[in-house]
Every structure is written in structure tokens, then in C-alpha cells.
Amino acid sequence: MRVVSVRFRMIKVDYFSAVDGTVSVEIFFNDGADKQVLKKMNIKSPHEMTEELVTDMKVMEKNINLQFDGEKIAGEVKVVMEGEAEVRKKLMHFFEEITARTQRIKNMKTSDGYLELIRDIKKMAAAL
């Protein structure tokens, strides 16, 4: 069995759409080499967004590191996230901020500060 260790470095907002209710996040991580991935997500509960991101990252790493011997997959791959509990907590906080700011935009009655709130979301980043 091959064990792959993944260390998350940072997450930041790449694109945000209040109309579609979507956010595209850029995830910086290291699995032996520095890498980055762009993921588009629907804005929903912070817990669901965190679980979706962590699960997708694990599946992606597992698929990248599978070895094929010509006929079948040789061996198994186990993906281990360094400091997973802490990373999940930080991701949850990051997505809570996005969700709260999106809700503020939806609840606005006037256009005062609308563009500023959108710019604030687009500048969001967090070290993991």
C-alpha cells in the first residue's frame, strides 16, 4: 500500500458570482511537490463545502497516485492529510465567512456598498 501525505498551504477565492451562488477557490497544497487546483463550488452550508472539498482532494490525490501495470491497478493508495482536524476547522471558518458575506449581499436593500462587499469576497484568502 502506498501512502501519500498531503499538506494544504492556502486557499483563496478566484471567482465569485452572487447571481449564480457560486465561488471558485484556488487551493495550494503539497504532496511531495507544490501544486495548485481550481475548484468551482456552489455556495451552501460551510460544513457541506468543507466535506466536498476535502473528499474531492483525497479522491484526486488517490487517482493521481494509482499505478497501472497494463492489465489492472497495482496496489492501493491511502491519502493522509497532515493536520486534518485543524485544516477542516480553518476551511469551515473560511467557508462560513463566504456564506455570511453572500447572505449580506442577498439581504441588501440598497446598492450602497454592494460592489465593495463583492470585492471583499474576491480578496478572501486563508493560510491552512
Rg for CA atoms: 17 Å
The major β-sheet equals:
5 strands, mixed
Distance between the termini: 27 Å
Question: How many structural units, i.e. domains?
Answer: 1
Regions with little confidence, pLDDT below 50 for 5+ residues: none
What percent of the residues sit in helical stretches (DSSP H or I)? 40-55%
What's the mean pLDDT score? Answer: 90
Bin the strand percentage. 35-45%
Number of helices: 3
Which class do the helix and strand fractions yield? Answer: alpha+beta
Number of strands: 7
Molecular shape: elongated
Question: Could you spell the SSE succession in H and E letters?
Answer: EEEHEEEHHE
Describe it.
The chain has one domain (2-121). It is 41% helix and 36% strand. It is built from 3 helices and 7 strands, in the order E-E-E-H-E-E-E-H-H-E. The strands form 2 sheets. Strands 1, 2, 3, 6 and 7 form a 5-stranded mixed beta sheet that branches. A two-stranded antiparallel ribbon has the order 4-5. The longest helix has 24 residues, at 84-107. The two termini are 27 Å apart. The mean pLDDT is 90.
Keywords:
128 residues, alpha+beta, five-stranded mixed beta sheet, two-stranded antiparallel sheet, elongated
Topology:
Elements: E1 2-17, E2 22-30, E3 34-42, H1 46-65, E4 67-68, E5 73-74, E6 77-81, H2 84-107, H3 114-122, E7 125-127
Parallel strand pairs: 1-6
Antiparallel strand pairs: 1-2, 1-7, 2-3, 4-5
Helix pairs in contact: 1-2, 2-3
Q: What is this entry, summarized?
A:
The chain is of the alpha+beta class and 128 residues long. Helices cover 41% and strands 36% of the residues. It has one domain (2-121).
